[in-house]
Design goal:
This protein is an alpha/beta fold and about 120 residues long. Helices cover about 30% and strands about 15% of the residues. Helix 1 runs parallel beside helix 4. The protein is globular.
Length: about 120
């Protein structure tokens, strides 16, 4: 097996190439795998609260959240190809290409931030 170096994970080029052929992949699992644990935290929020998912890639996590009636989800990823794959799978969430280390959002813009194993990809 030819694994990439961890340093490659911070490069958009690595993810663009990977997502050019990979339709979907769940790092650690989708929303359904975490529903019980996350549900305990989410029960203190309203389904209209603003959610930011960092490093969404081509994961169906936000689509699964939408199926549970969460309405206001913004997905960001460094890879345009990852966002294109995600757009093919779902509609109704905002998809933005950006680096999570320099986001232009105002403070307190989101009520919930989901980070699912993306911190290891930061420089």
């Amino acid at each position: 097996m030819n694994l990439p170096k961890n340093a490659d994970y911070s490069k958009a080029e690595y993810w663009d190439e990977r997502y050019s052929s990979e339709k979907s992949f769940e790092w650690l699992g989708g929303f359904s795998q975490f529903k019980k644990e996350i549900g305990e935290l989410l029960k203190h929020h309203d389904v209209s609260d603003a959610i930011l998912q960092l490093g969404c890639g081509n994961s169906s996590f936000s689509a699964e959240m939408k199926e549970e009636n969460w309405k206001n989800i913004t997905n960001i990823d460094i890879s345009m190809n990852g966002l294109k794959r995600l757009q093919e799978q779902e509609c109704g969430t905002e998809l933005l290409q950006m680096d999570m280390t320099c986001m232009p959002f105002k403070d307190h813009m989101f009520d919930i931030v989901i980070e699912k194993s993306v911190k290891c990809c930061a420089k």
